[in-house]
Structure formats: C-alpha cells, structure tokens
Amino acid sequence: MTTPFGSYELTRFPDDPRDQLRAWDAADEYLLRHLESGTGERGPVDLAGAGQITVLGDRWGALTTALAAYHPTQITDSSLSRSATAANLDRAGIGTSKATVTLLTTQDPPPQRIDVLLVRVPKSLALLEDQLYRLAPHVHAGTVVVGTGMVKEIHTSTLRLFEKILGPTKTSLAEKKARLIFCTPQAQGAVRPAGTGPWPVTYTVDEEGGSAAGLTVVNHAGIFCADRLDVGTRFFLQNIPTNTDGARVVDLGCGNGVVGTAVAVADPDAAVVFTDESYQAVASARATYLANVREGRRTAEFHVGDGVAMLAPGSVDLVLCNPPFHSHQATTDATALRMFAQSRKVLADRGELWVVANRHMGYHTHLRRLFGNSEVVASEPKFVVLRAVKQERPRPM
C-alpha cells in the first residue's frame, strides 16, 4: 500500500498466500490522502501537533500502520484485526510498544481525551452506534472527526448516527467508490447525550428455540440478530446433541453464546468452551452464560482469538459451529474451512464436529475431504445440520 506517509507491505490475519483479498481498500487510501493534503473545503490535518489520535475500526491495521509515527491508539472489536495490525507493524519495523502504537479493544476504556478520531465505518450499524456513544464523552469541540468507508457501506442511517451522537455531519464526494464523513463535535453536552447507548440488549428465547427455550440471551452491539434468535441458530438448537455426558464442548464462533449455554444448562458436568474472534461476542457469551447457569456448576472457559488455535490437540470431545460466510463485505468460505481444519486438530479420536450452514455452501464436501465422512443430521429448504466424526487415519505399515 502506497500512501503519503510511506509504502507498506500489509497482509490480513491469518496470513495466507492463497488469499486474494487485500489488507486495505480505496476507503483507507482516501482517508490517508485527505489527512495529508485535504479534501474539498477541508484542509489537511496537522497530525504532528494534533494531540491524541484514535483510530476506530481499522480492519487490518492499514491506517494504524501508516500513521504509526503519530502514536495512534487503535480500537477494534476483532482479535484477528488486532493480530494483523501487530504483524503489519512488525513487518514495517515499527512494533507495538506504548511509545509507538496502543492497541485497545471495544471492551477496553477509551483514551481520556481524543483530539483526532478516525473511524473506519463497520458493517454493523449497531457496533458503530455503541462505539460512538462510548467515545463521545472523550471528544471535545476541537476534535477532528473523519470517517471513511466504501460508498455501499455509508448510508443515511450512518450519517444520522454521527449527527445524533457527535454533531453536524457532511460527506465528501466519492473517489474510487469510497467516501469520507466529516463530523464537527459540539461542545460537551450540547448534542452528545449523557450516559451510554442502548446496549447490551437482553431477550428470552421462545418455546421454538429447541434446547435454548426459556434461556436469557445478552447481546452486546455488533452481534448478529440482536433481539431474537437468527433462523440458522434456531434450527441448530433444535438439533444439537443434549446428552453430552460431561464432555468438553466448544461453542466455536460463539456469538452471544446461546448454543454453548444451552449445553451447559442441559449438562452441568460438561466443560464448555466459548471462543470467537470478536471481543463483543465473547463479552456477550460470558453475560449469557452467567445469566442462566446455576451456582456451583462447572466453570466455563472464554477465549477471544483465532478459532480454537489456543486449545491443545486432541483435547475436545465435541465442537458446535455456526460458521460465518462473510469477511467484512466479502463473501468467502475461507473462515469456515479454517474452523473445520482447526476443529479436526483439537478433537479427540471419535470426537465430533457439528455444523449448521446455508445449504448452498456445500460444506459436506469439505467435511468429507477433511474428516473422511459427513452425515446430514437435519435439513430444511434453507439450512442443513452436518456431523463429522474424527477417525484417526491408520498409519502406513
């Protein structure tokens, strides 16, 4: 990526030479050009004398890496984005010491005072709303606020959020299908509401929620289907095994944790592990679990990271997975296939992977190739539940 601040070799995380998707796009480039030379009526930003710079939602560290000389603070919901940023900084010979760049999550307290706020608009409008509410008390009337995104990512509702929470908002002309957002924060209390936004949201699963019926679900901002079960998860919960018999069970890509919590409630002896790449998701899963389990049951594990890469090989009996098929705006099965391969590694012999997915994804083919078997447990016109069993391959004589 070539920018006014230098040229950088950037990759996504996990780094895969076969991945054709770049670690930056035209929206990142547009924002960096604007900071250096200005756009339309807006002049360049004096980053050297600007004070504290916060970068919200930087997808793979492109913005943070390019601006590292100005000691920015990055705030992200994705542990994969955080890992990508650290790797890209190392590749650029910068590193992540506090003297250069500070890496925070959406669950961490933000900087006390923010003088420049750069926002990469996320796919989730709810996550944007939540984070603007969290950051609003830390900006001031002189804070420079610039957002960026592709044209298809910036809607009227996006601009209304900036306007409602921070202050008057305008957009730039489009360049290479990217657009900038300019927001002028008002004096403290003039526009920004006191307190926090509407998150987290809590609801009770209805009687059609299978093994999760009656459970309380807590959703922090950015989690898919905030106020009800999505149809895929509902179908999964109607078909997952309930006789886990004290097994070690992983809710992989746990989201709000309703699947793992249903297992924990049904089997108090089960050792349930919740894992997701999203800090918001794991916070939701923890809250959902604590809202439903009785005192004295076996303690669950909660991990933010790359699938089940943090678990020991052969240490798991059952993996339950509702894999995503999007990476930001791109449709891809790469994340799901990585989840399947990781699952096989951590499963014990005869351990099982259960997957719910849109029928058209054709995951049964991948599971047969990886596990040597794949069984359809349940199906309907749109979704299918698949089961694959790990069988140790015979050693050659």
List how many beta strands DSSP finds.
20
- Quick one: overall form? globular
Which oligomerization state do the chains in this entry correspond to? single chain
Strand order of the largest sheet: 5-4-3-6-7-9-8
In helices, the fraction of residues equals 25-40%
Poorly predicted runs of 5 or more residues: none
Brief write-up:
The chain is of the alpha/beta class and 397 residues long.
Describe this structure in words.
The protein is α/β, with parallel strands linked by helices. Helix content is 26%, strand content 24%. It has a seven-stranded mixed beta sheet, sandwiched between helices. Helix 8 links the parallel strand 13 and strand 14. Helix 4 packs parallel to helix 5, helix 7 runs parallel beside helix 8 and helix 9 packs parallel to helix 10. The mean pLDDT is 92.
